[in-house]
Write a structure and sequence with these properties.
This protein has 6 helices and 5 strands. By secondary structure, the protein is mostly helical. Helix 2 packs antiparallel against helix 3 (51-84) and helix 3 runs parallel beside helix 4 (95-112).
Length: 179
């Protein structure tokens, strides 16, 4: 996704990250481009100081930090989900995010002793051994990223069968009950 280098461009990305449980696709150079944008804003302030320019700079920094924090959380969940689904895919991540994603996958591989991503791998077998749990949904829930997959949306009183890890997430949040 080509993004306009401006405070408004950052706000659009931040809004997209807040509204979706999925990662917004970014150019590989997103962070380096915005680092340059912030540096140019700082240089501009040195030449011609104005309170409006300071406000834009500080708000841009704040919004960028928020984007980074949200995306890091989503990348951790994506890496975990992709690992258990045997589907490693870092498309749409900025260069720095690809490094984070790859590092998380590597740690999971080391932790599990898994050496390749094939359909006969241990995580899939674990997921199947985990079993499914029958639940009654207590509130309307939008689609979201669970522990093992993207699940939902669900309506109140709907009966569903979910993998144990996903079921535990809903039970812990008291938005579902066992059947």
């Amino acid at each position: 996704m080509v993004v306009e280098l401006s405070f408004e461009g950052l706000r659009r990305i931040a809004l997209g990250e807040k509204q979706s449980s999925f990662l917004t696709k970014l150019d590989e150079g997103f962070y380096s481009n915005y680092r340059e944008f912030l540096c140019s804003q700082e240089k501009s302030l040195e030449k011609s100081f104005s309170l409006d320019s300071v406000t834009v700079l500080e708000n841009s920094r704040r919004v960028l930090k928020d984007i980074i924090k949200r995306r890091e959380q989503k990348i951790f969940l994506k890496a975990l989900n992709d690992y258990y689904a045997n589907s490693v895919d870092s498309l749409g991540l900025a260069a720095q995010e690809k490094d984070l994603y790859s590092s998380i996958i590597s740690l999971l591989v080391q932790h599990d002793g898994k050496t390749s991503f094939s359909s006969n791998s241990a995580p899939s077998q674990k997921k199947q051994e985990d079993g499914a749990v029958k639940l009654k949904i207590l509130v309307n829930l939008p689609q979201f990223v669970g522990a093992t997959q993207t699940i939902g949306p669900f309506r109140e009183s709907q009966l569903v069968e979910l993998p144990s890890l996903d079921a535990q997430l809903l039970l812990k949040r008291e938005v579902a009950q066992k059947q």
